[in-house]
Every structure is written in C-alpha cells, then in structure tokens.
Amino acid sequence: MRRRDWPWARRQPKRTEAATGGTDAVDGLAPGAGERRRTPAVVTRNLGRSVGRREAVRGISLVVEDGETLGLLGRLGAGKTTTIGLISTRLRPTRGEVRIFGKLVSEDVNAARRLLNVASEEEGGYPSLTGEENVDFFAHLYGVPRGECSQRVAGVLELVEMTPSKDDRLASYSRGMRRRLSLACALVTAPRLLLLDEPTVGVDPQSRAHIFQAVRALQARGLSILYTTRDIEDAEALCDRIAIMDEGRLVALGTVSEILARSQTREVIELTLGRPPGDLGSIARLDGVLRLELSGSELRVFTLHAPGVLAVLCGTPAFLAQPILTMKVTPVTLEDVFVELTGKELHD
Ligand SMILES: Nc1ncnc2c1ncn2[C@@H]1O[C@H](COP(=O)(O)OP(=O)(O)OP(=O)(O)O)[C@@H](O)[C@H]1O
Ligand SMILES: [Mg+2]
User: Fold this and answer.
1) Same structural domain for residues 297 and 248?
2) Residues 122-132: tens digit of each pLDDT
3) Minimum CA distance residue for ligand 1 atom 17
4) pLDDT reported for residue 11
5) Which of the residue ranges 197-206, 211-220, 269-278, 324-333 would you say has the lowest mean pLDDT?
6) Tens of pLDDT along 173-185?
C-alpha cells in the first residue's frame, strides 16, 4: 500500500517561526499569486563538489519542501552520500549554495546545523556502551538540555522500537539494529530536517519494517526528510517526490506519476519465448516499438500502445517460427524510466 493511501498522507506540518521567513523563489517553484508557502527545508542551487579531479556532485538544484520526504534515488557511486554531506554541512561545496529553512549555510553554518541531523551510511557509536548509553552520549554531545535528556532518549528509542534492546551492548546488535540506533541518535537533537543515507541497505526484513514505521511516524509529525536510496520500493513507499541522480547530476525530479509521464513509453509487452529471437532488428523497426530489452528468452517491448504493436508483432517471422510461452502487458514502471533516463540498470 502506498503512503498516499493513508490518513498520514494528508498531514499538515506545524507552522513554525521559520514558516514566515522569506526565501528566494527557485525557478518553477515560486508560489503562485496569493499563495503563501512555508520556507522550504532545503534549497540547493547549482551545488557541486569536486573530489580530486572528479566532480562527484555536478550542479544540483533541488528543493525539499517543509514537511516533505524527498527521495534521492541513484546507483552505487551516483553522488548521493556526497550530496548528503554537502546539505548536512559536513562537506564544503566547490560550487553553488545550500539553504536550510532559508538560512544560507555559507553565512551561518551553526544555524543550519541546529536544524538538521544525519543518520549516515556508516553506523557510528561505541560498541562497549549499551544502545541507551550511546543515544544518551550523543544527546549530551549535541547539548540537549540535561533536564530533557532522559525523556528524549526514551522517546527516540521507542520510536525506532529499540526499547527492549536498549540495555544490550552495541557490539551485540545486528546491522539492522545498528541502523535503527543511528536513526535514534540523529533524532535525539529533535531536528526539523532529517537526512537519511540509505537506511535500509543490508538490514534484515524486521529492521527494515521498523525503519519504515519510524519514517512514517516522523512524516506524520511533519519532519522534512531527504532519503537516499538505491531501492525503488523504498522510494515509492516512503517518498512524496523522487529525484533521480546519475553521475552527480539530477536527471528527473517529481512525483512518481510525473516521472512516469516523462517517459516516451507507456506500456511494456513482456514475452517468454521458446528460444531467443534471432532477428531483433526487425522487431525494433516495427511501427510503435520504442525500445527493446532482451534477457535470455525474455523479451520486453516498450510502446505507447500495446494492442496495436501486438497485432503486428505476432505476425512477424521471428515470432511465427517459435512458441510464445507467456505474454503479458504491464504499465511502464519507475525502474523502467530509470533505465530510460540514465541508460543503466539501478543495480548491477
Ligand atoms: N573521498 C573520496 N575520494 C575519492 N572519491 C570519492 C570520495 N568520495 C566520493 N568519491 C567518488 O564520488 C562519487 C560519488 O560518491 P558517493 O559516495 O557520493 O556516491 P553514492 O551515490 O553515495 O554511492 P553509494 O551508493 O555507493 O553509497 C563516486 O564515484 C565516488 O567514488
Ligand atoms: Mg552513499
């Protein structure tokens, strides 16, 4: 079930003191006449970062609206972690700028830092301390008022459903439990913007479900979230909009349906053939065929309108000579559009 089917999908983030602050209008995102808009959680303009002679992030302009979850979807090495580093102020941009709730990071880095926190790719923490001691340590490190510490620590442990394991040492935790604990550590400062770097990679299904639940609870509270992932399912299930990143650039940004609408194709005819078709070129040249994918005897034919193509396809010599074992027509998926836009599979 998609998040937009739930009552939370219509959540109204609380208005805050920053809500009335002005921000520069970003191209195409300026509020319409008479419409009052909250200051976005993140605005980046032409953001870039060179690592040696290579530019890991190449001029990214994006907006995370207040209360929105934006997914940053990209392959291994696309530049997701570098982007998180730039937005979190951990890395300095070599070009461009970042605003956090209207505050320009280059002018007031501490103001930006007070508003955000990161659950990074690597699990931090001290193996010899218990889960609770770790969260408590981070709370003190980040200056959470003493009187609030124990309540905050208990609250965030509960949110990631780690209360039953809070007295066990971090060293004994599974990877999924460590990721949940690093999420708790990030939340203990009560950030308004949470940066999540691939929180579900390599975690067990139970921890994945707990992380999903925690993200949904945070969305319901109006938190703004930037969620990087290599997983289409995560992106579709949790994110309001998705930015597709490839080789340091954004190649698409929008809701799932907006991104699907950018595709030149609409439907896929999926065929399992008796043997691989010999003459792919003649199929590719058929009227209405926009793209082909062949994997063994599985052929996928991309088109705008499947019925018209099917009628011609099944009469071609390449098909008449062999049995068709299965055939179905499906709508184009986000994964298909990812391949179309980047020329690469999401996973190797
Ligand atoms: N410190 C560094 N030194 C050299 N190259 C780096 C460094 N940090 C990042 N890169 C390179 O920059 C590019 C982007 O890396 P980044 O870690 O941001 O990608 P990513 O999308 O987070 O990848 P992954 O899915 O593997 O986490 C990659 O080609 C990477 O090899
Ligand atoms: Mg990364």
Assistant:
1) no
2) 877 899 999 99
3) 81
4) 38
5) 269-278
6) 999 999 999 999 9
Q: Establish if 337 belongs to a structural domain.
A: no
Tell how far CA 292 is from the center of its chain: 28
Is the model more confident about 122 or about 32? 122
Place of tokens 């203990």: 188
Cα(140) to ligand 1 centroid in Å equals 31
**How large is the average pLDDT for residues 333-345?**
94
Length of the chain measured in residues: 348
Ligand 1 shell residues, CB under 6 Å: 51, 56, 74, 76-82, 121, 230
Q: How many domains does the chain have?
A: 2
Beta strands across the sheet bearing 289-295: 289-295, 298-303, 267-273, 324-331
pLDDT at 55 over 80: yes
Among the candidates 259, 288, 322, a domain finishes at 259
Cβ neighbours of residue 176 closer than 8 Å, sequence gap 6 or more: 203, 204, 206, 207, 208, 210, 211
Ligand that lies nearest to the alpha carbon of residue 56, given by its number in the listed order? 1
Q: List the structure tokens of 243.
A: 């930015």
3-state SS class at 82: helix
> Quick check: helix, strand or coil at residue 288?
coil
Mutate to test the pocket of ligand 1, among 51, 76, 84, 195 (most ligand atoms within 8 A of CB): 51
8 Å CB contact between 121 and 83 = no
C-alpha 149/C-alpha 172 separation (Å) is: 24
Strand order in the sheet with 249-254: 116-119, 193-197, 224-229, 69-74, 241-246, 249-254
196 burial class (0-12, 13-18, 19+ CB within 10 angstroms)? Answer: buried
Whose CA is closest to 245, among 182, 295, 197, 293? 197
**60 within some domain:** yes
Per-chain mean pLDDT for the chain: 88
Banded model confidence at residue 35, pLDDT cuts 50, 70, 90: low
In this structure, the answer to whether residues 141 and 283 fall within a common structural domain is no
